[in-house]
Amino acid sequence: MSTLAKAMSKFRLAVVQLQVTSVKAENLSRARRLVKEAAGQGGQVVLLPECFNSPYGTSFFPSYAERIPGESSQMLSEAAKENKVYLVGGSIPEEDGGKLYNSCTVFGPDGQLILKHRKIHLFDIDVPGKIRFQESETLSPGSSLSVFETPFCKVGVGICYDMRFAELAQLYSRKGCQLLVYPGAFNMTTGPAHWELLQRGRALDNQVYVATASPARDETASYVAWGHSTVVNPWGEVISKAGPEEAVIYADIDLQYLADIRQQIPITAQRRNDIYAVTSTQERVELSAETLRERKCETQTVQQITAPLSRLLPQAQDLIRVETRDANMFGQPQHCALLQDQTVILFCVYPLLKLSS
Fold first, then answer.
1. CA 199 → CA 33, 106, 150, 161, 330, distances in Å?
2. Does the pLDDT of residue 254 top 80, yes or no?
3. Nearest Cα to 214, choosing from 246, 189, 236, 169?
4. Model pTM score
């Protein structure tokens, strides 16, 4: 391995567990200071927590929401440029077109916006006697996957509840991501039960590094965050972890170690793609349309089949679906494009069309 390649195979990740208050200006100032501190300790990629500029709660989202670009994203851009880091800006309540989103912005060392990820899976839960929370009362879901590139590796972005969906992490891994980041704010019920477990599961299943950034715990808040921001390696081991209080934690991400793990236990090469697959809706539409053109399907046209799918794309629950390629599962549904050998080309179309009919 060349000296340059060896140098690029390792980088330092910094995770900021911020004490969030009800004063937005104070939150922004505090975050900026801690990003500088993280960079000073060698952080090259810095991760902030979910809702770093506002208290977490449906009653707060409308009043703290901003457009992007706006006050908070401007601060993030400046902080990334000043400290020459890749800055994953946790998340903020975003207002756009009369709707509110839980959105994460990522900025490069030049201060330019690299991507914006809107939380795909809204946190709507009801655990009797413990916690009820309905993000959908005020927020709308995002509808796209979010991956950005650094000189070190590709990074996949999710927000909090997104982490519970293993399919999303699998798609990111398949797209070449070696680090997954989840700004999140688990609570005092789900935090001790699932926070670390989910991170270790996503890391182990996909042989990637996983990092989470939580707000620091505030016992006086209406929603009490668990804290314990964490970094997990591809072996499923916790390599860095905060307590409940405000802190910056660090982890050296070793991509050669990741490659060694994948070589020792080669699950990617061993997957039975002839039996099962995890695909995104966007990929299915593109692939299916191209397949139809190439194979000159004898039934419905590309437009007839893909148009209903396009209408369904914004629905988060249909964004990710595990399919089977066994044509017998569906018989020979009239809505599904078939070749003469009865192989299902658009094996995803039939169930989705049934939803829209």
1. 27, 21, 22, 12, 35
2. yes
3. 246
4. 0.80
